[in-house]
Amino acid sequence: MKREPNQPSKKLLEREMKSSPSSPSSLHRKTPFLSTLLLAFIIFFIIIILYSEVFSFIFTQSHSSNYNSISRIIQRKKEKLAFAIGEREEGCDVFSGSWVWDNNSRPLYTEDCPCIQPQLACQQHGRPDNDYLCWRWQPHSCSIPSFNATLMLESLRGKRMLFVGDSLNRGQFVSMVCLLHQHIPENAKSMETFGSLTVFTAKDYNARIEYYWAPFLLESNADDAVVHRITDRVVRKGSINKHGKKWRGADIIVFNTYLWWMTGMPFKILQKGSFKDEVKDIVEVSTEDAYRMTMKSMVRWVKKNMDSNKSRVFFTSMSPSHYKSMDWGGEADRNCYNETKMIEDANYWGSDCSKNVMQVIREVFSKSEVAITFLNITQLSSYRKDAHTSIYKKQWNPLTPEQLANPVSYADCTHWCLPGLQDTWNKLLFAKLFYP
Predict the structure, then answer these.
(1) What angle do CA 244, 248, 252 make, to 5 degrees?
(2) CB-CB contact of 189 with 181 (8 Å)
(3) Which residues does 168 contact at the CB level (< 8 Å), separation at least 6?
(4) For 224-271, how does the pLDDT look when each residue is reduced to its tens digit (9 = 90+)?
(5) 137 has which bridge partners?
(6) For this structure, is 412 an active site residue?
(7) Where is 135: in which H helix or E strand?
(8) Where does the chain cross the membrane (predicted)?
């Protein structure tokens, strides 16, 4: 039979089918390759989203960006941080700002708070001025959320919040308790001390806010919560579990350690053995090396003992003192005594705050794989030479005639009046906890 002139032959059709890109055999060969390529692209895209910003550093502008700009939060992008209910404004650095006068909403509580220790209650001990109570921290580019005691208590329901460190961290603990206690009925709260541990309980919430005395975090010869005024200070290497076993199970931990390291001399490290040994293997290292050792121990402890899906860890930076008025252009041999005005120089950085120690924190945190939020309170607190307890506190020992004649000689320029500056620390803690 003759075929039609325009009808292709069977062999030609078969050849065209084989060579056609849309033929079933061609699709069968190319589909696995395309699917694999698409799948690889999707996986790569997901990895980029999840891990490209696993470590996010937030730096505050201050006297020296190499040392003081360390405000840091490490977070995983694949899930919301524990306790977070919102986010900060884009680009908001809550640690960079200025103090503004606010005598309407400040102070946030009064000295009637029964938890304030007598060495922090300045008005009760004769401080004649009260302007230091009326300053509010205002970031340059955003606002800090108001402290919400109800939200804080509800979030702590059935949970445990723990402050660990020296007496400055104890002050922050007391501030937090005072911010909350007025919202709790008198018969529904208690505060007890058990050696190094102080526990405030909000009974209706089954919530505990605690403070644990550990000025070096590691075991040391200054671990007695009452008798600890040791000049020849020694810490034991690798000993964080001595105290750390008491921290396990906390849902929120706020660490600090700084002041006790600043001896001005090489620091003594007990290499092995016990403080009870007659012959001790002790070496002397620089303050920075000793501090680095401790920071690394803290990070390892957090990695091993804290679940980042359920808990949060904070580290509060060095608290400044104001013992040298020459730092801010004052007279020689003067300090914070009788200072009622803050320092107005935005770039002020006192000699009491070690840039080398700040650099150590930066180095250790930059290599950390655990979620730690850095509360950089150093710069904003450095302006507040007016906020220390000075001479307006309980004196545990009778003052000598020489001291009475020269108040500068016994002024406490390390600790802070409550209410006062440390309430701002807790406002920043609140902001970072719920709006990281």
Answers:
(1) 105
(2) yes
(3) 256, 258, 259, 319, 414, 415, 416
(4) 988 778 888 999 999 999 999 999 999 999 999 999 999 999 999 999
(5) 99
(6) yes
(7) strand 135-139
(8) 37-59
DSSP 103-120: TTT--SS-TT-TTS-TTT
Per-residue tokens: 293: 């050792």
User: Given 311, 382, 415, 423, which residue is catalytic?
Assistant: 415
As given in the structure block, the two tokens for residue 199 are: 């526990």
Question: Per residue in 68-107, pLDDT tens?
Answer: 344 444 444 445 799 999 888 878 899 999 999 999 999 9
DSSP lists the bridge partners of residue 254 as: 163, 314
DSSP helix/strand/coil, 282:
strand
* End-to-end Cα, the chain, rounded Å: 84
**Could you tell me if 136 and 419 are in contact, meaning their C-beta atoms sit under 8 angstroms apart?**
no
Q: Is 410 helix (H, G, I), strand (E, B) or coil?
A: helix
Question: Torsion angle of alpha carbons 346, 347, 352, 355, nearest 10°?
Answer: 140
The answer to whether 389 and 415 have CB atoms below 8 angstroms apart is yes
Which of 69, 167, 175, 381 is catalytic? The answer is 167
Give yes or no: 415 in active site.
yes
Query: What are the start-end ranges of the H helices in 306-408?
Result: 355-366, 378-382, 401-405
Is the separation of the CB atoms in 388 and 319 below 8 Å?
A: no
Tally of CA atoms within 13 A in the half-sphere of 297 that contains its CB? 21
Q: How far apart are CA 374 and CA 154, in angstroms?
A: 24
